[in-house]
Amino acid sequence: MTRPSTHIARLARWGVTLARRRALVGIEDDPNAPLQVRRLVRLARLATLTSKNGPRDYAGAFRAIGPAAIKLGQSLATRPDLVGEEAAHNLLSLQDNLPPVPFEKIRAAIEASFEQPLETLFAELDPVPVGAASIAQVHRGRTLDGRDVAIKVLRPGIREKFARDIQTYEWAAAHVEAMGGEALRLRPRLTIANFKRWTLSELDLRREAASASELAEDMAGIAGYRIPDIDWDRTNGRVLTIEWIDGVKIARREELIARGHNLEKLAETLVISFLTQAISSGFFHADMHQGNLFVTDDGTIVAIDFGIMGRIDRRARQWLAEILYGLTTGNYQRVAEIHFEAQYVPSYHSVGEFATALRAVGEPMRGKPVKELSVGQMLDGLFAITRDFDMQTQPHLLLLQKTMVMVEGIATQLNPDINMWDTAAPYVRSWIRDELGPEAALADRLKEDAETLFRLPGLIRRLEEKYPPKGGAPEPPPLPEIPLLTQRRERTGGSRLGYLIAGLVGAGAMLGASALGLI
Fold this sequence. Notes:
Layout: H1 4-20, H2 25-29, H3 35-47, H4 58-65, H5 67-76, H6 80-83, H7 85-91, H8 103-114, E1 122-125, E2 131-132, E3 136-143, E4 148-154, H9 158-177, H10 182-186, H11 188-202, H12 205-218, E5 225-226, E6 239-243, E7 248-249, H13 253-258, H14 263-281, E8 283-285, E9 293-295, E10 301-303, E11 309-311, H15 314-329, H16 332-341, H17 351-362, H18 375-386, H19 398-414, H20 420-436, H21 438-466, H22 488-515
Parallel strand pairs: 5-10
Antiparallel strand pairs: 1-3, 2-3, 3-4, 4-6, 7-9, 8-11, 9-10
Helix pairs in contact: 1-3, 1-4, 1-9, 4-5, 9-11, 14-19, 14-20, 15-16, 15-20, 16-17, 17-18, 20-21
């Protein structure tokens, strides 16, 4: 177990880096932040001789700290309630780019992971990477049977580095949450726990391959969107080999236009594909930034990099769909009721008051394009009222919120006049009708009742095992209680106490008789 002094040393080093870039000024000025934390960040700023005035470079600070901090900063970009709107907006620009690892080390890592020479795996492998991120880097190669592939290789030692840093995040989060108040409501320990789970998944490239395979099955029927094929024979925990995609990055708007692509159609396909993943499947690509989406010559959007995936259970998806549809139609009362049903808002608050607060957030957006008001602004508005209604953070929805902001940003670049609500409303309406209509309710009830009936035999068998039948033998007669040797000490202790009491009583009787002249 890491010693507290080690955690403190790491935090002090990171704090100095953050303070030099004024990334802690927001916390220092936040009256809701715990007093102890505000004092510590102020001390860090003074120690670096940094004034409050000047630009605040949150993204640069996290990039300077290291790979784990880059990933943490990207996840905090979805938490304006935790880091503030300015920091969240700045962290959205945090790019996951680092200098590449020398090819000799990459080659050694591939050969060690497969326990065979590189030449037995690939006919060609370009030593110059096409991308180098905080966790892995990607090289273009060709298999022995002539297929062009992308080979993703973990950076040597990255798992150990992440493990060390995450231990310190957990230690710090536990101490901050113990301060109570606003820190307790924001649940930093659970936030770090989710970050740890996402990161561990991203550090196992077999799980990334499995995620890509699962998403490909879910999206098989969606026109205009697909997932590359996995080369399972050349994939393990540290190396992922996937189909090479020839296409244009979706961020290159002018090049897409030059190639004759319909940008409005691309934006709509992107939004519908995200809704299909999040609401229909409950399993979605949670790192859908511009660098991970390509457009092929036939207009198909192809996603890559499946290290971060989100998953939502069916009940939560139903709530999500109703919330989105309620906001698009202005049914704020129903949206408020869902928040209480899901126990996102404590029951001692008023449903009507919460509906009014939601109206203040949602009404300004209705009927306007994203370039005027956006989903991101809606989330900021929702975060602003969470404190008033004692809403705890819902970590299972953080990835969804992050992805919604990403999708909105890309869709807006493709089509500045897109209205996310108008685009989403028909899909959400259809899903609600199919999943929450009378037929769906009846089907769910029949399924639940049938499952209950099927469980009855097993329940009866377990009861019989616990209370078996008496069988053919007669009832045994009552048996006398026999003191055991193991009870001797207790019995002896009790007898000695009895002897002492009897002796005192006897002595008292003799003294009384002597005083009366009887003896």
